[in-house]
Amino acid sequence: MRVPSLRPAGPALAVGAALLLTSCAGSSTPTTTGSRSASRPAATTAARPLVLQVATADWQLPAAVSRSVVQPDGHLLLVAGGLDAANHSTASVYAVNPVTGRASEPGQLAEAGHDAGGSTVGSHRFVFGGGTSGPTASVQSVVAGGTGSVVGRLPQPRADLAAATVDGAAYVVGGYDGSHDLPAVLRTTDGVHFTVTATLPVTVRYPAVAVSGNQLWVFGGEHNGTTVDDVQLVDVSTGAATVVAHLPHPVAHASALALGDRIYLAGGRTGQGEQRSADVLAFDPAHRTVTSAGRLPQGVSDSGASVVDGVGYLLGGETPTTLASVVTLRLVEPAPAPVASSSTGTTTGSAAGASVGSPDWLPAATGPGHLAAGSDPSVLPGPILIADKANNRVIIVDPQGRLRWQFPRPGDLAPGQTFLIPDDAFFSPDGREIIATEEDDYVVSVIDIATHRIVYRYGTPGTPGSGPNHLNNPDDAMMLPDGQLLIADIKNCRVLLVAPGAHTAERSYGLPGSCRHAPPTRYSSPNGAFPMANGHYLVTEIGGAYVSELGLDGTSSWSVHVPDVAYPSDTNEISAGRYLTVDYSTPGQVLIFDRSGRPLWRYKPAGAKRLSHPSLALPLPNGMVMVNDDRNDRVIVIDPATNTVVWQYGHTGVAGSGAGYLNTPDGMDLLAPYGLLGTHAATMGVP
To answer: pTM (2 decimals)?
Structure first.
């Protein structure tokens, strides 16, 4: 087990054992979302085998955690213990709604710990072993919103283990007593009395475990300090335990989830170092075969894992940075073959599985990248869209710093058409279009990515106003799944809702000429309206530094003043009750705060490292933060665990248009399926 006082530079031997349960073939078919491009023909296919869809959830955990015990609690996920972002063992227990991301007030374990196993017997939830500085024999009860207790003892201390439930009994598998790997598979129905059911032929620490029928499957792990590729079968009815298959490569610290008739093995470590795997493997218990099923957004180990309502969840983990992000795994119908030149860039696959690939409109990468020294491309899940304001362009840059797409190119604009000073840019929910706000030209443009054409505009270029088809400094524009546009119209002190193709607003939240904070009928210079996981929108007001929740039915449920921020910009939701904003000032800052306005994290370096008018910060799936540092002419990624810049495109304070240069970048988004609107498509509300 790993002592949490520091992160060693060498091998780190620990895993967050999670409760891994069987699930019915809970196939969740994604809803087809419409847009202005809904006239594109849809391909039809005969019924085909379901495929695995891997995606980043649009919510995050209340705090970063790894090596926790995760158990289902009805329709909720129960997260207990683990290591926090400071590498300290925690005793926190909280329940989280996997649909909305909302978490309960935390309860407590009787003893803090990590590297434990968890299982449910009847209505009782147990945490077995684990520890802090060394293995423990404690068996603890888990109570959401309350304090658990020590209810029993294992026959000997045991950490780095896994646990699962089969036919109403809990089984403890693998682990380490402080000196030796432990071969005994223990059975209990009450957390007090234990019997030895089987003996593992290969003793392992940090295995991944899942259940299929009445059979217990044990994947990989570390045997005497060496990562192994064994698949071990424990038949709990006979007590037989044998090695029945082998993985394509050795792996430990992975997570396993049973979905349909397969067990999916995700992530882990493939050697003795800190290297993490992004592989998702599918194991067929009937034929004892292993196939590739896709890729995680990034290499990760030590994630908690569970299945609720037919959906698998990987919670937190390490990269080695401790994460708050959540990844979903679900079985879906295969996507129809993409129409020529209109690939969405979303998850695709075959019967064997699915993974994220580049859309066919994105040219292949060529030549060297252009990143600042010390940049780590692995911190980004994929290419990013940048609104390069003073260069009058929007571009897509990959994690290696290579320019992959640009608008406009020569010939992209129609005769007499302009594209000036794009302030912000976001992908549409289906990933086929870019919505760009040309703030100081008073117009919002929708760009078809594949054809490089502006296909729709709201506003009159060069002419400010408040009447039909007029805007006055529009800052952000978001496309809803049904194609409507939601526009933050700063100087008109309103947020507009515009129907697809229309040139008259369908609804206005706020009133031109009445700029004051009184949501939802009045707003003081709103510069952003970002989607929330509950279907509402988060509106940022420059005047007074307020953030408010807005429902498209015209209701506002709460509002908060953001303290110590002079000019808040583009506030967005990280997870339930956690919000991310920037201070568009010099020196600027990035702030995470809660619903009461209490700061949870702040990045405000001084001197040569200071931010200069940052306009937007977005959370990444790995818990890091991507920031537009406008007047420093760069886009950066900040690691909140170390408060350091770990990736940078652009030369600090040096504007330019050549390779590796930007000029006042003011907007950004991630390529599908990680884009802001793509991740919120399922929950973005309509009136």
So the answer is: 0.59
